[in-house]
């Protein structure tokens, strides 16, 4: 089995504007992967949701339409 790991720099989402979503989608591959929705405040990092997908691009795009998840991410304690 050959496993390759590629860690990308976090992408800041200030809002869920079409521009932000397009910027995120442009950086994702459509292969398998793990994604994290998290909050950062100063040096602190808190994972709010971790997921895995066989087609990362499609799954993350779907998650942007998951109202309950996105509300949780946007209103999480800072």
List the helices and strands and how they pair.
Blueprint: H1 18-27, E1 33-41, E2 44-53, H2 56-64, H3 67-75
Antiparallel strand pairs: 1-2
Features:
78 residues, alpha+beta, two-stranded antiparallel ribbon, 3 helices, 2 strands
Would you summarize the structure shown here?
This protein has 78 residues and is of the alpha+beta class. 36% of the residues lie in helices and 24% in strands.
Radius of gyration from the alpha-carbon trace, in angstroms:
13 Å
Shape assignment = globular
The rounded distance between the terminal residues' Cα atoms is 41 Å
What percentage of residues falls in helices of 4 or more residues?
25-40%
Mean pLDDT: 83
The SSE order reads: HEEHH
Characterise this structure.
There is one protein chain. The chain is globular. The relative contact order is 0.19. It contains three helices and two strands. The model has no long low-confidence stretch (mean pLDDT 83). The chain is 36% helix and 24% strand. Strand 1 and strand 2 form a beta hairpin. With 78 residues, it is of the alpha+beta class.
